[in-house]
Amino acid sequence: MRLSVVPKALIFPFILVTTLFALWGFANDITNPMVAAFKNILLISNFESSLVQFAFYGGYCFMAIPAAIFIQKFNYKKGILVGLALYSAGCLLFIPAGDAMAFWAFLIAYFVMTCGLAFLETTSNPYILSMGPEATATRRLNLAQAFNPIGSLTGMLVAKELILSRLNQATEAERIAMADTNPGGLADIQQADLDIVSGPYLMLGAVVFAFFLIFAISKLPRTAARDVAQRSSTGAIAKRLLKNKLYTRSVIAQAFYVGVQIMVWTFIIQYAENELYMSKATAQGYNMVAMGMFVSSRFVCTFLLKYFKPSSLLTWLAAGGIIFTAGTIFIHGIVGLYCLVAISACMSLMFPTIYGIALKGLGDDAKLASAGLILAIGGGCLMPPLQGLLIDKAVWIDTLSSVRVSFALPLICFIVIALFGRWVGTLRASS
Predict the structure, then answer these.
(1) Using CA atoms, how far apart are residues 412 and 296, in angstroms rounded to an integer?
(2) How confident is the model at residue 397, as a pLDDT?
(3) Which one of 133, 193, 194, 368 is separated from 91 by 20 to 30 angstroms, measured CA to CA?
(4) How far is residue 4's CA from residue 241's CA, in Å, rounded to a whole number?
(5) pLDDT at 1 over 50
């Protein structure tokens, strides 16, 4: 008898939960270009503007474990409702943030948003796995995850067409001059620009609230969200996981992966602006090409998994990332930008591959362990500000600009991932 990926009785709940994968993909990729936007609007440093990512991914880091404990105590539906409520509230906080013209207020809004996204990701992944036979669980999750890049590309398009291309085109130097000669005019430009930034987030908040209402009235299957709590205490599971070298090193590798992903997609704009003098909107087009390569490469790499072990493929992808990142640093001009875009092809399968390596053989412990892997998204909150600081402070080395020097940090991340993949391969071979 052939098992269905999604049983007929669960098709509607599956579709409903799958929409959440697109919703958090949209939030991730409408936000990445805002680092460059806030820098120009508010005349702040690269380090300060990259605090957008610190606040955004800090919400994941802060809320992943509480979200896992919540769904153990209650159920998946309530976890989703809490996530959507926080997500929508964070978007609506852009109203007072824009009125106050206060960067710290925008950071709070981003943090609240991603506390909600942490709930959604921690809840939706195991919920999708539970919606049908265990034998088809991985295929079911891959199907749901396929909608994440759709949300990401939509977010990138909205950022390009509805935000970056509509911002006042005054350069940073011109704005600095206005601060001395016409501060009132500069304030008017800043307010108008912040209104443009806030608009799509307010619409997103309304859409997310509509989904909150749909989920609230929908009948969703009650699956075994409490199995872990019934069979073993959270503390006992955590102790087992901390003693598991494969799991703990996987979490570390995942943190480095998320960090490099966010750095590459955040600073494409700065690279194109500083090295090739492109506008932000044009540079965002290269970000969209990078996402297209990311999606295409995922299908190619999924096919290659038929012939290569996950750890081996991970190692080779990391090696490719090292080569292209080196090209980004040492090759000047458009070829360097092409290398930066090509990095995305090497990143495509890293997150799910590390995720699978970490959870293999964990049994019931995998539910809490998955929260640790979501917590590892915190790598995205620490590394972009460090790269921003490098851009601000790095000394030019011969002909290398500070922007190009800053990509030494992504290079280090890929080296760590390559070493992890090699270690896993050695571990598997000796067992």
Answers:
(1) 25
(2) 65
(3) 368
(4) 33
(5) no
pLDDT tens profile 5-50? 778 888 888 899 999 999 998 998 899 889 888 999 999 988 899 8
Q: Record the tokens describing residue 206, joined without a space.
A: 């309304």
Domain 8-225 matching CATH 2.40.30.170: the answer reads: no
Using alpha carbons, select from 6, 14, 35 the residue that is nearest to residue 265. Answer: 35
pLDDT digits (tens, 9 = 90+) for 338-357: 999 999 999 988 887 887 78
Cβ atoms of 268 and 278 closer than 8 Å: no
| Calpha distance 387→407 (Å, rounded) | 7
What are the extents of the domains in the chain? 8-225, 231-431
Closest CA to 197 of 101, 53, 87, 88: 101
pLDDT of residue 217: 92
Give exposure, 89-120, as e/b (b: 16+ Cβ within 10 Å).
Answer: bbbbbbeebbeeeebebbbebbbbbbbbbbbb
Domain 231-431 class in CATH: mainly alpha
